[in-house]
Design a protein that fits this description.
By secondary structure, this protein is an alpha+beta fold. The protein has helices at about 25-30, 85-90, 100-115, 120-125, 140-155, and strands at about 1-10, 10-15, 50, 55-60, 70-75. The chain has two domains: about 1-75, Ubiquitin-like (UB roll); about 85-155, Orthogonal Bundle (DNA polymerase, domain 1), CATH 1.10.150.120.
């Protein structure tokens, strides 16, 4: 066991955990944020996607010690007072069916739009290729990302970032 400081959604958490514990379990079981989901455990489905220093990572295989002292944003921290434009667009497009993959999909989409504010369908497909949806809502995912891009272009500065 080791004491590891994780900075999750702008808050510091000192955790006495196995350093090799996957970040997913540190976030869910020790920080208490359960929006990030366990899907496959081998970084193939994307349900566990979080942002680490602004980049999407698969937290199910990422050692907690590798995230020490780095900025982590989960689905709970993606937006502060109002929904993030991606979350707003997700609701407008009625993307979720079962909803299990949605936090990972949204986190990947937000990272895409942070680096590419006007993605093409091909850009979206590439950025989200590792986010699996058993319900097959991929056309609505693409529609929502295009809508979120529109919303972000008209959003006030600072209203689309995490904590």
């Amino acid at each position: 066991m080791a004491e590891i400081k994780l900075i999750v959604n702008g808050k510091e958490h000192l955790l006495d955990i196995d350093p090799q514990m996957p970040l997913l379990w540190a976030i869910r079981d020790f920080v208490g944020l359960t929006g990030t989901k366990f899907g496959c455990g081998v970084s193939q489905c994307g349900a566990c996607t979080v942002h680490l220093e602004g980049k999407p990572i698969r937290s199910c295989t990422y050692p907690a010690v590798a995230a020490k002292d780095k900025k982590i944003i989960t689905i709970e921290g993606l937006a502060s007072a109002n929904p993030h434009p991606v979350q707003q667009a997700w609701a407008e497009a009625q993307v979720p069916q079962c909803g299990y993959c949605q936090s990972g999909q949204i986190m990947s989409a937000a990272a895409l739009l942070a680096s590419n504010p006007s993605p093409t369908d091909a850009d979206i497909d590439t950025a989200l290729q590792g986010n699996l949806c058993r319900c097959g809502t991929y056309p609505r995912v693409r529609q929502a990302i295009h809508r979120a891009a529109e919303l972000m272009k008209t959003a006030k500065p600072g209203s689309t970032g995490g904590k």
